[in-house]
Design goal:
alpha/beta; Rossmann fold; oxidoreductase; binds the ligand N[C@@H](C[C@H]1CC(C(=O)O)=NO1)C(=O)O; Dihydrodipicolinate Reductase, domain 2; diaminopimelate dehydrogenase activity; diaminopimelate biosynthesis; 2 domains; 26% strand; binds NADPH dihydro-nicotinamide-adenine-dinucleotide phosphate; four-stranded mixed β-sheet; NADP
Length: 328
């Protein structure tokens, strides 16, 4: 029997999950839920209903995993603990500094409901988190570096769109080339947040909006922009659609570590991503973790999990026997 999936929140990520499900025949899309009027939300899959978000609770027995595709800035802190009371859930929560409190609120909900809630799934946090953890476990004596871009951060773009007076936005994250080169050379440089990346924002403001206030709110936004050198450009909707319609991204996790008793041998681990579509790639990761959430709950597991808690084999549609063949 297919794993029955619900999507809550239909934006870039919601569309991406819908696409990713097509590539996973052991899963099926049962319903999409939105805070807007359903007739305003046109999905890609024929025959799948779109419901007002208020109806989600009535479908708890018809959905095995509800994938939460809202924004991290303001949606997921409310939605994930709320729906973990009724469903196995997966979210992409990426406000790194607030992950511990998010974990606690989702765990409280999921422990009481007997469901599994896997949070902060994606590439960062997510695949990059796993690779930082593996590299630290393998090379305890070393230094970590993470670089993103140049590309469009969905979390930062979403955070700007939540500011009053903003109609649309794209945020580019840009790595500082000299910092990247120093890391790749194995010099293990001390780098501040500001020395590693800059951020460039393209914003469509509502007519008559106070653009000076918007720019100030962006540049001082904790956890997103306050620790970076950030530039803000105000452009028209037409310019945004023409010059900034794509959502490419990517990045690197690098760890340089040493081993040896007297002699010092240096090792460099690098994990890299080059993404044409940030949302479609992120959604492909989320769908694999939805499979794991279902399996873990079927085994009787409950509570909040992160990518560190999920056995890798649970992500794959292949059986244990098929996976072991990969190892040979
Ligand atoms: N961990 C990771 O590696 C990654 C995490 N993310 C996270 O994913 C989050 C979601 O990103 P993304 O999908 O790009 O955000 P969007 O802004 O596209 O969508 C967020 C929500 O806004 C609503 N929405 C979407 N389009 C419209 C519209 N035209 N008018 C009104 N409301 C709309 C939808 O809710 P509704 O249907 O209910 O209206 C949707 O769920 C980001 O905030 C980020 O934190 C993203 C990439 C990677
Ligand atoms: N969570 C990010 C994924 C990566 C990209 C990023 C950044 O550009 O700051 N940080 O983490 C996103 O929303 O796109």
């Amino acid at each position: 029997m297919s794993i029955r999936i619900g999507i809550l929140g239909y934006g870039n990520l919601g569309r991406g999950v819908e696409c990713a499900l097509k590539q996973n025949p052991d899963m099926e899309l049962t319903a999409v839920f939105t805070r807007r009027s359903p007739q305003d939300v046109k999905i890609l899959t024929a025959g799948v209903p779109v419901y007002p978000v208020e109806q989600a609770e009535q479908m708890a027995d018809k959905i095995d995993v509800l994938i939460l595709c809202g924004g991290s800035a303001t949606d997921l802190p409310v939605q994930t603990p709320k729906y973990a009371k009724l469903f196995n859930v997966v979210d992409s929560f990426d406000t790194h500094a607030r992950i511990p409190e998010h974990f606690a609120s989702v765990d409280n909900a999921a422990q009481s409901s007997g469901k599994v809630g896997i949070i902060s799934v994606g590439w960062d946090p997510g695949m990059f988190s796993l690779n930082r953890m593996y590299a630290n476990a393998v090379l305890p004596d070393g230094a970590d570096y993470t670089f993103w871009g140049k590309g469009v951060s969905q979390g930062h773009s979403d955070a700007i769109r939540r500011i009053e007076g903003v109609r649309d936005a794209r945020q580019y994250t840009i790595p500082v080339e000299s910092a990247l080169q120093a890391v790749r050379s194995g010099k293990n440089p001390e780098l501040s947040t500001r020395q590693k990346h800059t951020r460039e924002c393209f914003v469509v403001a509502e007519a008559g909006a106070d653009t000076a206030r918007i720019e100030r709110e962006i540049k001082t936004m904790p956890n997103y922009f306050a620790d970076y050198d950030t530039t803000v450009h105000f452009i028209s909707e037409e310019e945004l659609q023409k010059n900034h319609s794509g959502i490419p991204h990517g990045g690197f996790v690098i760890r340089c570590g040493k081993t040896g008793w007297n002699s010092e041998n240096t090792h460099i681990i690098e994990y890299s991503l080059k993404l044409d579509s940030n949302p479609e790639f992120t959604s492909s990761i989320i769908v694999a973790y939805a499979r794991a959430a279902y399996r873990m709950n079927q085994e009787g597991q409950k509570g909040c999990k992160t990518v560190f808690d999920v056995p890798p084999a649970y992500l794959s549609a292949k059986s244990g026997e098929e996976l072991r063949k990969h190892l040979l």
